[in-house]
User: Fold these one by one.
Assistant:
Number 1:
Amino acid sequence: MDTSAAVGADEIRVRVRRLNLDAASFRQLWTKHGGDGAAVRAEVLEIVGRRGKMHNPVTGSGGMLLGVVEEVGPQSRLGLVAGDEVATLVSLTLTPLVIEDALRDWDGCSEQVPCDGYAILFGRSVAAKLPGDLAPELALAVFDVCGAPALTARVVADCLARRPGRAPSVAVVGGAGKSGALSLVAARAAGAARTVGVVPVESERTLLAEAGLADEVALADARDPVALARAVTAALGGPADVTVVCVDVPGCEHGAILATADGGTVVFFSMATSFAAAALGAEGLAADVSMLVGNGFVPGHAEQALGLLRSDKGVRSLFEARLRAD
Amino acid sequence: MDTSAAVGADEIRVRVRRLNLDAASFRQLWTKHGGDGAAVRAEVLEIVGRRGKMHNPVTGSGGMLLGVVEEVGPQSRLGLVAGDEVATLVSLTLTPLVIEDALRDWDGCSEQVPCDGYAILFGRSVAAKLPGDLAPELALAVFDVCGAPALTARVVADCLARRPGRAPSVAVVGGAGKSGALSLVAARAAGAARTVGVVPVESERTLLAEAGLADEVALADARDPVALARAVTAALGGPADVTVVCVDVPGCEHGAILATADGGTVVFFSMATSFAAAALGAEGLAADVSMLVGNGFVPGHAEQALGLLRSDKGVRSLFEARLRAD
């Protein structure tokens, strides 16, 4: 990748302040190095140095970044000027990046990476100005997952358009995570009849129940197809019309398909999703479900997600608790 | 996998006559062994012996089989009786299989594998009786890809339902292949305004043009995003409302996304599709497209595909030519 600091006619150079690694990417690095933060940091530096971008070769995923606009090409249409504090909403896997401080202020133990360096945004890149009323870390965490609630809301609205008066039930697998929590709130706001958040452990059940984001909270291992389908069916009184997969562990495809009603929709947001497992699983189970690849871009997604965070105290407190825990 | 020959209450045992390997799976084996048929055969035997099913560990895909019903469990609801000639429409990756003739009649040089052995179908399996008016090899080849035309037709119908009077344009990448050819015919039958089949080489352009399955035939390397988008846009007078990816080579995700109009739909049928490349590609390109995982099961798909083959001489002759070439 071309990592020259010069900006083209429709490009923007951003002085990078912080990277937010994709959860699946950070988990892979963390697991590979047995929790050795220095080794995680060394590998991130190695990847960015070699590829010219933060593109985890194992997970295929990147993340996003926060910074200050340094220079704007004369034909840029992103609506930004030098000095704007921005977050990129385009994946780091497509963003030329140069790290200049060797990540010396990062301990390698969290997804949020203090960083000094620069990145180049293109004409089709998407970047959002940071809101004045929210901490940058909080806004960044919201932007990182804002595609999930936006697409969930769209799918729920499509269901309502197809079958007026028959609001869909929605299951969110990984409902206590950041993308899952926002997706639950988005589903409810879009008119879902009933929602369930599925979580893997008791502590997450408590967290999600206290936040009040779902009508039901169910405990199940999403990698166990029968267990997941049973948990969803018990919570909703039947399979879900819409199942949203937000957990970043492999092997949730069959369970999500089994948990979904005939004619329903599964939305896969996890970067750990296997295309073949989803396609062949549905075929093998003779399951008539639509399966969507979770597109992280939906017009207006950033503003929509910030709006959900501002209007729902539960999801905001859950995000703040997750940021403190990082 | 349990490969016992005994049938459970809702199971069926089939005497296998022929396997039809998934195209991506066969290509991977063929390439790995440099076109050495004996080595391809040995690896298929090794995979089935070890895993109890034909499940290519690299591509994650399988294929389907043709045989004769041997024994039907008392509670089976598949509507089959002993002696029925059937093809399974469930992936081989989920079908217990025992090969008993060491594939001695197969030269390892084609996807169609003469075989003696048995397979077990479950309650949720899907199997179709072979039609009396078509050669078994032809019916098998149709069944193998029948999910693609069925889902393509559904997506085109959904477009028409959402925007009455504004029929969608459809691009099929890999339009001269079996799934691609049927998808083109299905799109036209479902009411597409205009169709283009994209092929990689001149010989396929001739084949597809002579079959008359598409309004336009375009030549492009689907792995080159800009070339693919340009070819589709030139042929249709703009990006496609629906893009269907039927080529079994990796790296077509970004091109398919770029070739698709904002608000449009991409359907990925290739097992070589990378979930992360699709999800992050759309996000990185800020492309507001819906992306569907090609589910090989749509109710009625087998009958629908046979109907297309019977009613369209072009697609039938293309299938027959492909079978002769195998």
Number 2:
Amino acid sequence: MDSAQSRWLGPDVIEAELKIRAALLAGDFTGWARGDGHFLREDLARRPQRLFLVRLGDTWHVGYMTISDLVVEHGMAGVVDNRVRWHNLLGVLTSLRTSESDVRLGFRPLDEAARRAAFQAITPMTELVYPFVQHRTPGHELTGEGWEVDAAEAALLDLGEEHIRRYTRELFGPRLAEAASDIVAYDPACSTGRFLSDFASLNPARIRTVGQDLSPQMADLARARLERVHVGDAEQPAVAPFSVDILFSRFLNAEVVSTAQARRILPRLALTLKPGGTLVLLGHTPLLLDAADLADTGLRVVQTTARQDDHVFQYYVCHTQRLRSA
Amino acid sequence: MDSAQSRWLGPDVIEAELKIRAALLAGDFTGWARGDGHFLREDLARRPQRLFLVRLGDTWHVGYMTISDLVVEHGMAGVVDNRVRWHNLLGVLTSLRTSESDVRLGFRPLDEAARRAAFQAITPMTELVYPFVQHRTPGHELTGEGWEVDAAEAALLDLGEEHIRRYTRELFGPRLAEAASDIVAYDPACSTGRFLSDFASLNPARIRTVGQDLSPQMADLARARLERVHVGDAEQPAVAPFSVDILFSRFLNAEVVSTAQARRILPRLALTLKPGGTLVLLGHTPLLLDAADLADTGLRVVQTTARQDDHVFQYYVCHTQRLRSA
């Protein structure tokens, strides 16, 4: 991607990131103490999407994403994946300010017991809110080909989604094992097809896989794994309206599209679903849409967050309205 | 100013704004209902500074500035002044999201009794937080002459500060009436000098007024009211370091400077203060700096919000450290 992104991968950056993670694990907030409080500050042009908020009751907690083992062990691009652990929660929100170029969150640190308790209090309907998106400098806007990636990048994205694939299998496995009729599963930006083929393994006899990707090369790769693959922009879904049982949207995050694109695309995706169909919104990094956007599109949100092992992550499940029986 | 701003003054806009104010007074939030909740949305290029937050305990309340009578009765530019009334509080913050181009706050509406109670719970140390600043489109950035205004605009600014002048007299009157030695009062962007001369009326024999303005014409106007007036940029204070007893900063708001400028200017202003000196930060519209910025500059914040009549407004009072006696 651009030069700012490759800088994140330098050994000095990784070392600094590992120190941040160690400080948060140790509950050492001195690095964020300033004036009369504690503050996280991020440039809007750098990584404002590292900052997140979690509302528990009416108390807003401040979170900070830390470096993923995927970076250290596999050289994954970017620094963070989408997994939130207890140490990513820092304290209670005390101030909030954005400027033309940065964002600053104030927090009152909590001790480890309170941070762990807050982490445990996150339910499937608690939203992990990443309120700030990267502002691209003029000349670095995403183009229509923004989500085209090469095979090596795709392999790393696959790795970044490993835990999400497992979660998906465990969530949908029981009900799909006994499906009585065909299930049409659609991935409008399917990349290598890995995610959808993994899902289809839950019931290969019943799950009909339909992929689509902007990149002809990626579509070729996906054809080895999926039953039908279309080349094309997800803004123009290749499937008929009201034809899909379950749709996996894995690309509406900041690295791939703009918020404006994501908002434009969501209703078009929703339109491909059968009445009572399911839309799953996930991403290997923070999403650009949230429960309010989904509800605004007429979808009924039944889950916003997944919990697995020692972490939670954004995982939205929602349904279209079922037709009333006549 | 630019064309967007003059549009705010059209009769259709004023009518729409009066409707918003009437709806908030009536507790009618249907205009903000969307999907499964209530949402305020503002374009970053329009008026995101209308949105404000108030933290009471650890509960964040959402606020929305409404049209000022100054607009309706006096044709003041812009729509809002800095006064917050009970009806400007809407409810409890439930979601928060910014994009490249807008900001969206979700809220759970409160009834009138709860809104009035929240308004009454605002103390002198509760901050009125305006977290979002206007993002100017390329070509419309503020220049170094950004805070130059003509005499007619200055007269309207005077009007917009009338309540602030009165509050200032009432806050400082008692202690200044009995001043035993000279008090140096400095206004680094004094405009017509009206504010500082009004302050000096509290004790004309003791208060020494020093004004400064970027505009030679404005400085000429101010000379009729103030003892000393310098022409020059507030980034280069015309007074000596450690020479000022009380400094009134009235220009660090979004219509006048950028956040980057405001942050650069604040420490320079603070440096002009005597040990134990006072800095008052106010503005006819939302400020770009807050208690965290003041504390970060080494100032001790003793007040953030003023209450007067039926309203509250941002009014920061802080002190430099006193010298320890030898």
